[in-house]
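Dear support,

I submitted the protein below through the web form. The confirmation email said the job was done, but the results page showed an empty box. After a refresh the structure appeared. I'm attaching both so you can tell me whether what I see now is the final result or a partial one.
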Amino acid sequence: MPLFKTITPREGTKVFIWKVEESFEWLCEGISLTEHCRARVSGMKSEIHRRGFMSIRHLMAEAGYVDQDLWYDDLGKPHLSDDKYISITHSFNFTAIIVSDRPVGIDIEKQRDKIIKIANKFTPLKEYHTLANEEAIIRKLTIVWGSKESIYKVHAQPGLGFLEHIYIKDFDFEDAITSGTVTFEGEKTEYELEFLEFEGFTCVYTFLLN
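What the results page shows now:
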């Protein structure tokens, strides 16, 4: 089934996740794109990116929207015509959107060992020395990266740094929740985060608290 999962984390918010298994041609059926989006998808060289792009339009349909309802601001942040909030993500063969009546962000990441090599660029790696094994470190780092990525999508300010400005509170895997803080340009902003893991992927979505 193409629609992999639907989540209602709270009233007024829905998460839709798609597992991309269909052909590009199948995904194009019944979908009308704006001229801008037709140009975007035509310029994509990667087949999985083209299929992912179209699967997101199917997710939007699940949420009651068409491509014409979506627009992007100068920072590349997506918006909906009815003023609800939307965030979009794509990783390999999974795509997802979150639609809400409050500011939200979402990110999907594939769990890969290469994240250990780049960890120092987005979080103090020494904080993870107590974890039992490399698999646990990869899982936790992927959640932290996804948390910061989803927060960045909400905050969307030039100059905001993952390492310098975004802090993710430590968490236990079984809790599936954590929180984050952005300290930037003299202001502090708080976020709630929820995460889930499936088929070697991690999905994190966040809510602005203040």
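Response: this is the final, complete result; the empty box was a page-load delay. Residues 134-155 form the longest helix (22 residues).
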